[in-house]
């Protein structure tokens, strides 16, 4: 990340495009100076209460950081390093122990103690010769600032008292900060940390504010008042842009606005190929805030409702009522379209302290998803009851993750029957015909897809994990991540096998991995006869557009050719030659002289 | 019971934020007291801030010392972490 380029005093920083759009404006740094430090003497008798207050604030800060960590998706885990170091700093003896020593030894309040701690650490860091280590004082400031804000009882209010529209530059914005941003005062925001799928990024997109996150050190690179261009599409920030940059980004801005208009016009047309083959295009979502985007981008329902957030958001487990109300709201707002709710898909180590686990060497292969649910019936039944109760309010389908064979399906069904009879006895309404599906992501499940298809109403291919499990590579491991390849012949056969087994049994096959949201893979998936594609709502317009431009017949022919490939390179070649003939205009303009198809992805949004 | 081992920092940017963070994180998972010394200056290996202030550029020679019930495991784990560049590619 963050490879800076320079030209005539203009600099480009690269991060992650979190919310699309292009904005021009002046930088406004948000930092420590915004937190007021109230200094107070503490009397002997109040000391223990003050220590308690301090520890509670640190505890809450840890909680907040852990929650941010939990929001980072698997594929971006490598960016979690900064947050991990923040956790360590919070409890570092130079901060945690020393602040408490100041409180008791000098009789000062927590805020005062923390500001003394910061001065002390600052003094030590100033003597460090290596600039890149000296600059890490920013992280210490950030962590202490977080505790100070908690102590002040602030949830960030008053942080953005802005007089004229600006581009916010911050180390990080919490969802609470982001909610207060008003689109007429904040032209865009850029941050050191964050990911495309964090709560903050999702909020930015629903507010329509362009954002670039994960810039690592923009807060130490930019000064308040400097001119910036923020390109939330490519994930770039240009500092002090020269005339040439300004002109080209004005063009990009116009192009994006035109594209948005086109999207709004077209997104509600059906996803139908030119020769009349229809596929359902649905959205993957998790937070209620995403619903407006799901609806406005023309989804035929929710193909994957992730349910992990409510378990991670609080220290205690969510009650059945809390879950039910959340699911019900999604179901009612998406109605008459269906909502597929996936049961918990993480490891218990993330949120249950009662299930104490040794640190797993390979958590992807550990006690998680359905395995955790089956081991913790109390947890599982509460969620099942909430999902099944929500089925009284619309079209609900339930999806079980990480199924590896028939035995697990039978176990799950037993629990479902138990919940059915309980609810019936209690007189609580529900939909008895609720459709049951399983994630197809474990290779053995795919080998016995014909058997499993007899047991369920639909399959949903989770290609992210499937690719990882079948190629035996960890995407987060940078040494092998390059082997992650959707076009691997073995992976393609697994997908095809799943779709065929579903159709032989008369059930539907959906795909809800990232592959579904990449327009270039769409023709192959259509050619295999996939019934449903579910993706990030933002990808829907591009995917729909692709579907509407192709012919099903051609896709079948392409798929036959791709399935004959003996290497991923051959498969890619067949795909590229098809794309070039089917989309000559998009292809040439997108390639920009590169032979790598990844180039297609860069300018896809404004083609 | 104490163990010691010498390590050489191989990371291009030295023992900067991420490696220091990894070091302290792993150190904290052991019961033993762990110190890291360079040119006679010793810091607490479980404190990311102290490790950072040691400011070790690439090529620095450091001594890890652990004292306690799991001192041997601690030194071995930390040494192999350092030898593999703290899991970073420069």
The CATH class assignment of chain B is Alpha Beta
Helical coverage of chain A, percent range:
40-55%
Which structural category fits the helices and strands of chain A?
Answer: alpha/beta
Overall pLDDT metric of chain A: 85
- Global morphology of chain A: globular
Oligomer: heterodimer
Largest sheet of chain A: 9 strands, mixed
Low-confidence stretches of chain B: none
Q: Main interface pair?
A: A-B, 24 and 22 residues
Beta-strand fraction estimate of chain B: 25-35%
Strand order of the largest sheet of chain A: 1-2-9-8-4-5-6-7-3
Q: How many discrete structural domains of chain A?
A: 3
In the CATH hierarchy, what is the architecture of chain B at level 2? 2-Layer Sandwich
Walk me through this protein's architecture.
The complex is a heterodimer of chains A (607) and B (90). Chain A is α/β, with parallel strands linked by helices and 607 residues long. Chain A has three domains: 134 residues, Phosphohistidine domain (Glucose Oxidase, domain 1, 3-Layer(bba) Sandwich), CATH 3.50.30; 116 residues, Orthogonal Bundle (Enzyme I, Chain A, domain 2), CATH 1.10.274; 340 residues, Phosphoenolpyruvate-binding domains (TIM Barrel, Alpha-Beta Barrel). Chain A has 26 helices and 17 strands. In chain A, strands 1-2-9-8-4-5-6-7-3 form a nine-stranded mixed sheet. An eight-stranded parallel barrel of chain A has the order 10-11-12-13-14-15-16-17, surrounded by four helices. In chain A, helix 8 links the parallel strand 6 and strand 7. Chain B is α+β, with helices and mostly antiparallel strands and 90 residues long. Chain B has one domain: HPr-like (Histidine-containing Protein, Chain: A, 2-Layer Sandwich). A four-stranded antiparallel sheet of chain B has the order 1-4-2-3. At the A-B interface, helix 2, helix 3 and helix 4 of A face helix 1 and helix 2 of B.
């Amino acid at each position: 990340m963050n490879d800076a380029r320079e030209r005539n005093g203009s600099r480009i920083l690269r991060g992650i495009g979190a919310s699309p759009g292009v904005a021009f404006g002046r930088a406004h740094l948000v930092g420590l100076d915004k937190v007021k430090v109230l200094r107070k003497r503490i009397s002997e008798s109040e000391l223990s209460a003050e220590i308690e207050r301090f520890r509670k604030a640190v505890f809450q800060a840890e909680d907040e950081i852990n929650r941010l960590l939990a929001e980072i998706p698997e594929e971006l885990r490598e960016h979690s390093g900064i947050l991990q170091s923040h956790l360590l700093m919070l409890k570092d003896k130079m901060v945690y122990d020393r602040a408490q020593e100041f409180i008791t030894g000098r009789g000062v309040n927590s805020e005062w103690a923390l500001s003394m701690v910061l001065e002390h650490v600052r003094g030590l860091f100033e003597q460090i010769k290596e600039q890149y280590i000296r600059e890490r004082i920013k992280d210490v400031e950030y962590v202490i600032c977080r505790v100070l804000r908690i102590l002040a009882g602030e949830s960030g209010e008053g942080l953005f008292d802005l007089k004229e529209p600006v581009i916010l530059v911050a180390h990080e914005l919490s969802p609470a900060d982001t909610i207060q941003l008003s689109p007429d005062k904040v032209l865009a925001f850029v941050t050191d940390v964050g990911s495309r799928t964090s709560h903050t990024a999702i909020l930015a997109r629903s507010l329509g504010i362009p954002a670039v996150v994960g810039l690592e050190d923009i807060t130490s690179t930019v000064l308040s008042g400097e001119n910036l261009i923020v390109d939330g599409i490519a994930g770039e920030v240009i500092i002090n842009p020269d005339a040439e940059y300004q002109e080209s980004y004005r063009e990009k801005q116009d192009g994006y606005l035109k594209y948005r208009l086109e999207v709004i016009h077209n997104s509600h047309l059906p996803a139908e190929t030119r020769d009349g083959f229809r596929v359902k295009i649905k959205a993957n979502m998790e937070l209620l805030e995403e619903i407006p985007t799901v609806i406005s981008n023309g989804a035929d329902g929710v193909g994957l409702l992730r349910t992990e957030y409510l378990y991670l958001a609080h220290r205690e487990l969510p009650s059945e009522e809390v879950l039910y109300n959340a699911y019900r709201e999604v179901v009612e707002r998406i109605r008459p379209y269906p909502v597929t709710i996936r049961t918990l898909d993480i490891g218990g180590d993330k949120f249950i302290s009662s299930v104490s686990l040794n640190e797993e060497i390979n958590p992807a292969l550990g006690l998680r998803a359905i395995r955790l649910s089956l081991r913790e019936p109390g947890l599982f039944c509460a969620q099942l009851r909430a999902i099944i109760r929500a089925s009284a309010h619309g079209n609900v389908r339930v999806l079980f993750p990480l199924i590896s064979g028939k035995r697990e399906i039978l176990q799950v069904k037993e629990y479902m029957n138990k919940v059915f009879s309980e609810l019936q006895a209690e007189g609580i309404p529900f939909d008895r015909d609720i459709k049951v599906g399983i994630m197809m992501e474990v290779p053995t499940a795919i080998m016995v897809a014909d058997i499993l298809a007899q047991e369920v109403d639909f399959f949903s291919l989770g290609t992210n994990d499937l690719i990882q499990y079948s190629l035996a590579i960890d995407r987060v491991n940078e040494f092998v991540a390059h082997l992650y390849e959707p076009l691997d012949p073995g992976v393609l056969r697994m997908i095809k096998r799943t779709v065929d087994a579903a159709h032989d049994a008369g059930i539907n096959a959906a795909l809800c991995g990232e592959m579904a949201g990449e327009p270039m893979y769409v023709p192959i998936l259509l050619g295999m006869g996939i019934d449903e594609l579910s993706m990030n709502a933002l990808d829907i317009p591009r995917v729909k557009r692709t579907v509407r431009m192709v012919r099903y017949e051609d896709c079948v022919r392409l798929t036959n050719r791709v399935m004959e490939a003996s290497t991923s390179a051959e498969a890619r070649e067949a795909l590229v030659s098809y794309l070039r003939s089917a989309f000559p205009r998009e292809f040439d303009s997108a390639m920009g002289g590169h032979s790598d198809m990844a180039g297609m992805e860069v300018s896809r949004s404004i083609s | 019971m104490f163990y010691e081992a010498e390590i050489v920092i191989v990371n291009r940017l030295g023992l900067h934020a991420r490696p220091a963070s990894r070091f302290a994180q792993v150190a904290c998972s052991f019961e033993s007291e762990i110190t890291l010394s360079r040119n006679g200056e010793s810091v607490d290996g479980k404190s990311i801030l102290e490790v950072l202030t040691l400011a070790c550029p690439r090529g620095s020679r450091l001594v890890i010392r652990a004292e306690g019930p799991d001192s041997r495991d601690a030194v071995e784990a930390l040494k192999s972490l350092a030898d593999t560049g703290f899991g970073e590619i420069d």
